[in-house]
From TrEMBL:
One of its GO terms (molecular function) is cAMP-dependent protein kinase activity. Belongs to the protein kinase superfamily. AGC Ser/Thr protein kinase family. cAMP subfamily. ATP binds at K60. This is cAMP-dependent protein kinase. GO terms for cellular component: cAMP-dependent protein kinase complex; cytosol; fungal-type vacuole; nucleoplasm. The keyword Nucleotide-binding applies.
Length: 340
C-alpha cells in the first residue's frame, strides 16, 4: 500500500449538534461480516452480506478514536456528505451510515472486480487503448465532481475499482471536499500529489488534473514518474517536475501528459477557461465517443473473472482482526459525527 500524506488539522470545529443515537436504518447485526477487502490509514473495508435481502455490500469501518487522534474528523464528515451527494455511473454509491460506541460504518455497493491497481501490477503496463479507456471514464468522473465544486484529491489506481463488466467505480471519498474557490490542506498520496499542494499554495481542481496525468503515466509505463524511496525525495522530484518519457509513449499521449503533469497552472489542461473540455478534446482522446463512454455502451478491455455473487477472489488478502463492532459502552466522540 502506498502511504498517504495525512492532512494537518483544519480550523473548523464541529460542536455537538445532534443526538449521537444511531437512527433506525441499519446496524451491524443486519449483516454477516465476511472478509476484509482492503485496509487504509484510518480503517478497514469488509465484504458483508445483508441478512435481509441476501445481497453483498462493502462496509467501510473507521475507529472514532483513531479519526480524532489523526485529526480527520472534518474529512470523515465530508466523506459521508460527499458520498451522499454524488450520483454518477463511475462513482461509488453509498446506501447508509451508522455508528456504535467505537466505530463509524458506511454501507456501499460491493464492487467485485478488484482494484485497477492489482490489474495494472499483474499486466505490468497497459496498451495505449486500454489506458485510454480507463482514463476516459476517470475524466468523466472528475468532470462531474468538479461541476459540483468537489475536488477529489486522492486519485490513484488503488481507489479505482472494476465492476463485474469492467467499468470503473471510484471509491474512497476520504479527502473529497466541496471547494467553490481554493483550499490549502496538504493531503493525497506522495506519488500523485501536485506541486502546488506540496508548496502549500492555494489550490483548486487543478490538483485532480495533475493526478489524472500521473495515473495515465502509471497506466502506460507501470510506474509513477516521481517515484522515490521516501516521500521527501518524491516531493523534491515533484517540485522539480522533470518527467522522463519512455520511447514507447506515443507522441499524442506525451503531449497530453506534458500538459497535465506541468507545474505551470496557466498551461495545465482542465484548469483553463474551457475546463474539462480541453482534456476531452485533446487528440489522444480523439476517437473517444464520450456519450458512449458515459452510458457504458463500449466494450470493456477486461472483464473480471467473477465466479459467483460475493466472490472476493480478486481482492488481496489481509490479516483479519478481532472485531468489537456493535459495542455500546462509553462513547466519547460520537458527538463529533452527527451525520452518521
Ligand atoms: N465499495 C467497495 N467495494 C469493494 N472494495 C472496496 C470498496 N470500497 C473500498 N474497497 C477496498 O478497500 C480499500 C480501502 O478503502 P478506502 O480507500 O476507502 O479506505 P481508506 O481507509 O480511506 O484507505 P486509504 O488510506 O488508502 O485512503 C480500497 O482500496 C478497495 O480495495
Amino acid at each position: 500500500m502506498r502511504q498517504q500524506q495525512t492532512p494537518s488539522p483544519s480550523t473548523a470545529s464541529l460542536l455537538p449538534q445532534r443526538s449521537t443515537v444511531t437512527r433506525g436504518k441499519y446496524s451491524i447485526t443486519d449483516f454477516e461480516i465476511k472478509r476484509t477487502l482492503g485496509t487504509g490509514s484510518f480503517g478497514r473495508v469488509h465484504l458483508v452480506r445483508s441478512k435481509y435481502n441476501r445481497l453483498y455490500y462493502a462496509i467501510k469501518v473507521l475507529k472514532k478514536a483513531q479519526v480524532v487522534h489523526m485529526k480527520q474528523v472534518e474529512h470523515t464528515n465530508d466523506e459521508r456528505r460527499m458520498l451522499k451527494l454524488v450520483d454518477h455511473p463511475f462513482l461509488i454509491r453509498i446506501w447508509g451510515t451508522f455508528q456504535d460506541s467505537h466505530s463509524l460504518f458506511m454501507v456501499m455497493d460491493y464492487i467485485e472486480g478488484g482494484e485497477l491497481f492489482s490489474l495494472l501490477r499483474r499486466s505490468q503496463r497497459f496498451p495505449n487503448p486500454v489506458a485510454k479507456f480507463y482514463a476516459a471514464q476517470v475524466t468523466l468522473a472528475l468532470e462531474y465532481l468538479h461541476s459540483h465544486n468537489i475536488i477529489y484529491r486522492d486519485l490513484k489506481p488503488e481507489n479505482i475499482l472494476l465492476d463485474r463488466k469492467g467499468h470503473i467505480r471510484i471509491t474512497d471519498f476520504g479527502f473529497a471536499k466541496e471547494v467553490p474557490d481554493v483550499t490549502y490542506t496538504m493531503c493525497g498520496t506522495p506519488d500523485y500529489i501536485a506541486p502546488e499542494v506540496i508548496a502549500r499554495k492555494a489550490y483548486n481542481k487543478s490538483v485532480d488534473w495533475w493526478s489524472l496525468g500521473i495515473l495515465i503515466f502509471e497506466m502506460l509505463t507501470g510506474y509513477t514518474p516521481f517515484y522515490d524511496q521516501t516521500p521527501m525525495r518524491t516531493y523534491e522530484k515533484v517540485l522539480q517536475c522533470e518527467v522522463r518519457y519512455p520511447n514507447y509513449i506515443l507522441p499524442e499521449a506525451r503531449d497530453l501528459l506534458s500538459n497535465l503533469v506541468t507545474r505551470d497552472l496557466t498551461r495545465r489542461l482542465g484548469n483553463l477557461v474551457n475546463g474539462s473540455a480541453d482534456v476531452k478534446n485533446h487528440p489522444w482522446f480523439g476517437e473517444v465517443d464520450w456519450d458512449r463512454v458515459l452510458s457504458k455502451r463500449i466494450d470493456t478491455p477486461y472483464e473480471p473473472p467473477i465466479r459467483h455473487a460475493g466472490d472476493a477472489s480478486l481482492f488481496e488478502h489481509y490479516p483479519e482482526e478481532e472485531l468489537d463492532y456493535g459495542v455500546q459502552t462509553n462513547d466519547d466522540f460520537g458527538y463529533l459525527f452527527p451525520d452518521f
